[in-house]
Write a structure and sequence with these properties.
The chain is mostly beta strands. The chain has two helices and 26 strands.
Length: about 300
């Protein structure tokens, strides 16, 4: 008789990375755990930025003026505040508190994300995240597309004891499934934990995984490794994540199937070969990615 081991393997913290602060866009400060020295990506994720929280006085809010993208996806998740976006393909939109914009840049787009008129005139608090997700070689030059999800459309769930709440931006958790369609299998969760919370989160064993704490602190894995505010935990192998909280905490859980493809990266372009980066730069400079048309 063959015995099958059905025990779940808990992922343990393999490395802790403190986020560093740097200026981006038109002069706003972000906390960035990666890319950094020695960590260019957590395949398939290319970048994780936390903007704020920052309180802007009237007239001082800043954003990211016209800039190109090619070969990957940008995911903007706003916790507080609001901004407006537009691009060279004629898309325009508004992203407010709790909203998500999943932009697949594909073959290339010139994009701008700026504070809303209300934020510019009256000021206010801004807090949110931007994640960059790599595209597989087959999708690098696909047509650009947007998936915009208002806060009310993001599936949420609460644990049976009421101590853990999750917003499911991609993937699934606590019995709910995301509304976003991704090019490769990805999990993107926002967990809010109260003191005494303990959650076991199933996670595909083929996924690379990380979590980023942006408020409070949590204990991760069977060995209860502490992860504090402003710190990313890179997770080892396994098929579930165990998280406990002794005080209120907020975190993002990101996981996805690694592409394991060659990567050539230069600023806003992420391709597979260096010659493709040169082509991207030439296309942008020649206007082949278009320009944002604004009323004069």
């Amino acid at each position: 008789m063959v015995m099958v081991n059905s025990m779940k393997k808990t992922r343990e913290v393999q490395r802790l990375v403190a986020a560093h602060r740097q200026l981006e866009g038109g002069g706003f400060v972000v906390r960035r755990p990666f890319p950094t020295i020695g960590i260019q990506q957590v395949d398939p994720f290319l970048l994780l930025d936390e903007l704020g929280p920052i309180d802007y006085p009237a007239g001082e809010a800043v954003g990211a003026p016209d800039h190109p993208h090619r070969g990957f996806e940008t995911v903007t998740y706003v916790l507080e505040g609001e901004n407006e976006h537009e691009d060279s393909a004629g898309h325009k939109g508004f992203i407010g508190a709790g909203d998500v914009q999943w932009m697949t840049a594909g073959k290339g787009v010139v994009h701008a994300e700026m504070p809303s008129r209300r934020m510019l005139e009256h000021g206010g608090r801004m807090h949110g995240f931007q994640i960059w997700v790599n595209l597989p070689k087959r999708d690098k030059l696909m047509e650009p597309r947007y998936q915009e999800l208002p806060a009310r459309g993001i599936p949420t769930a609460t644990s049976a004891d009421g101590l853990a709440k999750v917003k499911v931006i991609a993937g699934d958790a606590l019995g709910v499934k995301a509304a976003i369609e991704t090019r490769t299998p990805i999990a993107y969760h926002h967990w809010s934990l109260q003191p005494g919370a303990e959650v076991r989160i199933p996670l595909d064993a083929t996924f690379n995984g990380l979590l980023y704490v942006f408020a409070g602190a949590v204990k991760v894995g069977d060995d209860s490794r502490e992860v504090k505010d402003g710190t990313m935990a890179m997770l080892g192998l396994g098929d579930e994540v165990l998280i406990r909280a002794d005080r209120p905490a907020e975190l993002l859980l990101l996981a996805g199937v690694p592409l394991r493809e060659p990567m050539a990266r230069w600023g806003p372009f992420v391709m597979n070969e260096w010659k493709e980066l040169e082509e991207a730069a030439e296309d942008f400079q020649a206007g082949r990615m278009g320009r944002i048309k604004r009323a004069s």
